[in-house]
User: Which sequence fits this backbone?
């Protein structure tokens, strides 16, 4: 199977025409099989025969996360007997949503990840250590396993956490690459330093990173990315995905944004009024899945804010690339006249030594603006530490939040509740 498809190196005009043909197939499938979109087409008097171009998508209302929550089963397009895997979203910002996947969907998921790992320099025979969960109804871990298998690589399913087990596995099996949340790399480095493990001479040559940004919008390494590279000079590849998309945007070796796979997904960037943003502007990523059988989505607003880069990449791919996600639409913070997203606060905290863990809490005050409190867990709290951290915030963000010390174990229990798959670092208490 070809994991460097020709369509990803065609001119933009050819890619657009290809996607418009695939869109037609998708619309007919939804009209025939999706209770939710059947009702939508009827209610809005939408004639799918008139949706011929990508520009015509504007004639169709967008789909929101609330639609998935309120009408979850109405998005299913197959009988239950065809469903082979049930998955739920992580529920980071809202109640989790169930997704149904067929055999065909799992094959598509594997193909998607094989494309992405190949984009990140993957090859048959490469050994990956999976430092993310593959259970708990989680799509990503399963996707990585299936994709690496399809590519011809090998997987060691260690799961998340437990630095001791991670290093024992690295020393025993000698993997070439790790798949993990980038801040966890700093934790395994710290463990190695404390236990005299020569990690710089280990078999690991690269990390495929998920869940956190490694780069700023100009594609330079952010504070977290720089700190990892300063400690451990391995290749870093950033990826972006979500359960709803069943598709991954992965960097190539050029490190200039996640590559779009036009055979798998149609992407738009919309403003708050659901209009397309101007070229080069930030907008909310809105997706239409292609080739999904169990639960396809049409013009689904992801809540993630980014922008597109349309110029060809030095790697030879001509597909659009997406910037790092600067934040989620409903997580935007207005603080002391400055607009912030939690990721910018995390970037400072992840690059500060002696912080064991933290929570960022946002609430509304009596005058209707946002208050930000950062709860820090560290072994050596002091007034000097607070002053230094506030100076770091002002240098990076122009403003400094309120900082409070808290017990490391108390924060850990809040960060890692048993029912959550992802660490909780942001708590929104606003009305």
Assistant:
């Amino acid at each position: 199977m070809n994991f460097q498809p020709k369509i990803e190196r065609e001119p933009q005009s050819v890619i657009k025409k290809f996607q418009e043909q695939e869109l037609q197939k998708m619309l007919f499938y939804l009209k025939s099989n999706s209770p939710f979109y059947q009702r939508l087409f009827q209610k809005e008097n939408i004639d799918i025969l008139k949706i011929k171009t990508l520009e015509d998508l504007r004639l169709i209302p967008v789909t929101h996360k609330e639609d998935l929550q309120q009408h979850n089963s109405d998005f299913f397009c197959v009988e239950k007997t065809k469903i082979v895997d049930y998955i739920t979203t992580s529920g980071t910002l809202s109640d989790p949503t169930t997704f149904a996947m067929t055999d065909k969907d799992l094959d598509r998921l594997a193909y998607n990840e094989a494309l992405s790992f190949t984009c990140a320099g993957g090859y048959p025979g490469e050994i990956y250590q999976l430092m993310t969960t593959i259970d708990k109804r989680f799509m990503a871990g399963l996707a990585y396993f299936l994709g690496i298998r399809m590519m011809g690589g090998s997987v060691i399913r260690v799961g998340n956490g437990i630095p001791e087990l991670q290093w024992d596995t690295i020393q025993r099996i000698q993997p070439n690459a790790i798949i993990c949340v980038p801040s966890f790399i700093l934790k395994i480095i710290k463990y190695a330093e404390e236990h005299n493990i020569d990690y710089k001479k280990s078999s690991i040559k690269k990390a495929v990173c998920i869940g956190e940004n490694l780069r700023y919008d100009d594609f330079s390494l952010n504070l977290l990315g720089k700190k990892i590279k300063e400690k451990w000079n391995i290749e870093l590849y950033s990826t972006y995905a979500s359960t709803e998309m069943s598709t991954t945007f992965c960097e190539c070796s050029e490190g200039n944004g996640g590559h779009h796979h036009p055979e798998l997904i149609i992407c738009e960037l919309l403003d708050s009024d659901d209009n397309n943003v101007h070229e080069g502007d930030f907008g909310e990523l809105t997706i239409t899945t292609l080739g999904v059988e169990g639960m396809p989505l049409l013009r689904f607003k992801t809540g993630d804010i980014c922008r597109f880069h349309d110029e060809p990449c030095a790697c030879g791919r001509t597909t659009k690339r997406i910037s790092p996600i600067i934040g989620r639409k409903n997580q935007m913070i207005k603080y002391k006249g400055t607009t912030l997203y939690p990721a910018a606060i995390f970037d400072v905290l992840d690059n500060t030594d002696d912080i064991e863990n933290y929570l960022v809490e946002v609430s509304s005050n009596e005058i209707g603006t946002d208050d930000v409190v950062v709860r820090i867990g560290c072994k050596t709290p002091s007034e000097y530490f607070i002053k230094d951290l506030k100076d770091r915030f002002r240098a990076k963000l122009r403003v400094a939040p309120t900082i409070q010390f808290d017990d490391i174990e108390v924060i850990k229990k809040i960060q890692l509740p048993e029912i959550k798959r992802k660490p909780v670092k942001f708590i929104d208490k606003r009305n």
User: Anything to note?
Assistant: The mean pLDDT is 90. The first strand starts at residue 85 and ends at 88.
